[in-house]
Amino acid sequence: MKMSISPLQIPMRETEKPRIRIRGIYSTALTKLFLDNDFEIIQPSLEIAERFSLNPERYLSPQIDVFDRSDKQGVIVESLCTLTEQFTNILFDILPDVVVRKSRVQKGAIYKGIVYRPAPKGGYLVKITPQMDAWLPIENTKNQEIKLGDPIIVEIKDIDETLGIPKVSMQISIPGDFAVLISEESVRVSHKIKGSVRDKLIELGKILRPEDWGIIWRTGAANADVAELQEEIEVLAKEAEKLMQLSKNAPALIKLRNGFDVLNIQFPARSKIKLDGIRAQVFPTVSHHHWLKSYANNLTRIIDFAEKYLAKSVSMETLNTAINEMLKKEFLPQEGKLLKIYHIKPNGREVILGPAKVIMIKEDNGFEYRMFRRFVPGGYYDGIGAPKEAGDYGVTIVRVLDDKLITAYFSVDNKLKGIYINLNTPIEVYPDGFRYIDLEIDVVLAKDNQIRILDTQKLDRYVEEGIISKNLAEETRKRAEELKEWLSGDGVDEILNICDEVRSKLEEMYSLEGKDELGFADILG
Q1: pLDDT in tens, 491-517
Q2: On the CB side of 363, how many CA atoms lie within 13 Å of its CA?
Q3: C-alpha span between 521 and 525 (Å, rounded)
Q4: Which of 22, 37, 400, 448 could serve as a FRET partner for 59 with CA atoms 20 to 30 Å apart?
Q5: CA 25/CA 371 separation, integer angstroms
């Protein structure tokens, strides 16, 4: 019978309020949000400290760390596992369409694993649970001799993108608030600590470090006194001893210590708009601030300048009008442009639809892009049941910030094969196309002329996994019923009228080029 143990916890000290550090383009809005929910903001930037009258002095370390995703579409969060639920519940309560994806492994978690074979990229594959492998690069072995079948203690450092499994190291760390114990005999200091303070910490580390362990002094150590630092090292040394004792007694393939949950959080359009409103309570904020900041790098400085300087002398309405005019003329896609459709699943899988060519743009009630698409023959159209045949084409209707994407499918002789309405978070436009989170429920007019709602069960799984909120799932089901009713009434005729306009525009475009027929083969060329 397998021995059951309770993993140790990260030995950071508890405080009255959870400690959170926030960086990036969402920092003002998220700082306001979490201050209002009784969190303590740790190590704020000078700008955030000024806006919220916070003490910028770096002291204790954060229990939750928040920073931008590389694409600016949300944030990455590293959270003590004991605080993750509290953190995500706040997001689900306030942000209507936020998507939260939690990594299947915790950063900094420690396992007793077994080396079981060489890895394709060099190093070794280590089995850390009966169901999970990890990659131990050769440089992470601490120059120790490794044999297949050896039980070893490893710590998760990251997820390797190419292998898709955790990357681990035999260097173990015991993080606290002022210091991190590491399983190598050295003393290091945070690069943010300079001058004589840095020198003093190096000398102190040489005195305080436990036998066989080293110390990394964290940023907060610069503002702590010697007694606090000594007390912390004593606490960490006891935790290290407990970990080593547990590792001797525990069976292999078991977790010895919990780590930090890693959350990949996406802010779709409604969440960005909500964050705009929260930010506006603190600082002048143009309409769609967070979308603009994620749109293009060369827009960021323009938005910062407008809010910081122009808002003092110009009304926000005037600023918004000027920015909208600039967007239309210089940034938004124009007719004739080939665009992609970033169809992102709630679990993070990205499907790129298209290319689609913009044939018409309507501005009567917001921006509506009417686009032409071609399809490769073979197989059947999902949900519609009609075969994909040579010459088939589609008209896709995208209204910016709409919660649906419509595609009508036609044969080469312009006969309707079916209509597919994808329900999603409000569609955002970017320089190379459109982006939304697919909410997995679709409404279709199938080849048998029946109108159906598809895939209603998938949302339940995403709610159970904590990826989307229950409210978002319920709203989406209700919206699907409304769209089914719309298709059953005037919806089909409205869509076909738009498709007729697109065909007429194409005929006009191609007749001007001296062609007698629609040359669908080269419309996307």
Answers
A1: 999 999 999 999 999 988 877 655 544
A2: 6
A3: 8
A4: 37
A5: 32
- Chain Cα centroid distance, residue 237: 36
Per residue, the 3-state secondary structure of 160-213, as one string, reads ECCCCEEEEECCCEEECCCEEEECCCCEEECCCCCHHHHHHHHHHHHHHCCCCC
pTM of the model: 0.92
DSSP state of 72: S
Phi and psi at residue 394, in whole multiples of 5°?
-140, 155
Distance CA(353)–CA(371), nearest Å, equals: 12
Element housing 230 (H / E): helix 226-249
DSSP conformational letter for 311: G
pLDDT of residue 516: 47
- How many Cβ atoms are within 10 Å of 30's Cβ, its own excluded? 25
- Which single residue is written with the structure tokens 């009304």? 315
- pLDDT tens digits, one per residue of 430-488: 999 999 999 999 999 999 999 999 987 889 999 999 999 999 999 999 999 999 999 99
Residues 437, 473 contacting (CB under 8 angstroms): no
